[in-house]
Amino acid sequence: MAEQTGMVEKRGVGLWLTHLGLIIGVAFIFFPIWLAFVASTVSQPEIVRPPMPLLPGDQFFENYSKALTAGINAPVALMLGNSLFMALGIAIGKIAISLLSAFAIVYFKFPGKKLFFWLIFLTLMLPVEVRIVPTYEVIANFGMLNSYQGLILPLIASATATFLFRQFFMTVPDELAEAARVDGAGPMRFFFDILLPMSRTNIAALFVILFIYGWNQYLWPLLITTDPSMNTIVMGIKQMFPSGDDIADWPVIMATSILAMVPPVIVVVGMQKLFIRGLVESEK
Amino acid sequence: MATLTLNNVKKSFGKTDVIHGVSIDVDDGEFIVIVGPSGCGKSTLLRMVAGLETITDGEVQIGGRRVNEEEPMARDIAMVFQNYALYPHMSVFDNMAYGLKIAKVEKSEIADRVAQAAKLLQLEPYLQRKPRELSGGQRQRVAMGRAIVRKPAVFLFDEPLSNLDAKLRVQMRLEIRALQRELGVTSLYVTHDQVEAMTMADRMIVMNGGVADQIGKPLEVYANPATEFVAGFIGSPPTNFIPGTLLGRSSDIKIGIRPEHVTISENGSLKARVTYCEALGAETLVHLISADRSKITVRQDAVLPLPVEGAEVGLNWAQANEMNFDQAGNRLAV
Lengths: 284, 334
Description:
By secondary structure, chain A is mainly alpha-helical. Chain A contains 16 helices and no strands.
């Protein structure tokens, strides 16, 4: 009981200490991001001259508009668009495919059902990096280098999501499927009218995770896009780094980094409520 | 509204036979209760009529039409499930309207029918709520409403009251029966509760191990059970079974006698020791144990004096109330 009351409310010094601890923690995590933001608002000479500035400068609009419209290899706006398209494609595609395959595995009897499930499950143990060379070969032979299909398709199958939906579908009472059958709903009607709305929170939670997964892809886009107009933002940042004797345009690089963070943050904040509900509760 | 015919209906899962051939002709508007202990195949039988289980052998006819191969939807049935099986994300209205929407019934017609059912079931204030915002009894009513709006030929109930508390169960039992009479829809009702079977059924099917032990009107079944199982299952407290040897008769038979037919008297022919008395107010249940350790229950009027626990008493009954069973449990003609 004693620990429980401690969990619920703390008084006096304990309360202040707790908050102090949390504030230090937040400051610690946030500091590099702050530095990046500061660096994106000052001019190049100010950055390279020690000590590094800790307060924002007056170059905000200059740096950001330069980044968005011109960038270094490609305009950041274009790269953001590419990343957004790829991340959405991966997230939506993964969810659609996983929902359907989980639906098949849970609700239909077919020969080799167990085998297929385990085949899907086994791919959990093979990360992208392991199969990257053969995948590259396949995509290259399909002529999908430097294309959105090439960026999205190889990453679109997801054992994790399939497994998650399978677990969720198995908790849905059988009677619901039977009631739908008695009501005259065919399998796909049941899927769209009943299963899909019931999975709403799970889908939202997965969307957040998968969007960020897609957004953060680095190695794969780096391999298959050679045309700067197909660059994604995460690999784009790396390519802004100077090679050889070029001078790094740090304010623009930092502005790009900050911009690269914005969409995932919007997705997480916007879907936070659904996301947490999807992870902790199953609505039945 | 239609008749329902089961013609030697059988079901096997692989090599295991779970239903060994059940036949019954159900009249239009009749309320049939299938009762039996868990695992006797009563739900399976119902699900075969519903079309949720395949029929291994035999024939099911609804309104004189063979429906063995038809989907549930095409059989013109409606089913009420044990856990109600309401769609959690849909409002009460949508839950009831879903089947009609799929059947492409006109929107105004759907609204009419749902409104009618809601009125009948006193669900009008709740039409826009979600199932999770309703009490157990209300959910039960929604499940009923979903069945009613379809105007089916046959209602199928799969233990619809077992998730309710005792008081509500009694109330809903009456409501369901009244509703069924009003609508006049042929109904098949599965339960493990013999009280529900006794109180609701026009006729009941007592199932035991995949066999219909007896089919008949409740009071007939009660007064004249066909097997030892039926005698023991229908009636609470259950029938007493006394080995023939104890009464100086053949060792091949067992004598069944209902608790209300036994009286305690000093000069009773069978001696037994009182182990416990349950005074229920209007009546008293006296539990006794005989010399061969058979348990016997006597149901007596509360005005009669309570026997002392531990005392040795005599038991008496009229010969006419005896039921004789052979060792296999079949009733013997007297």
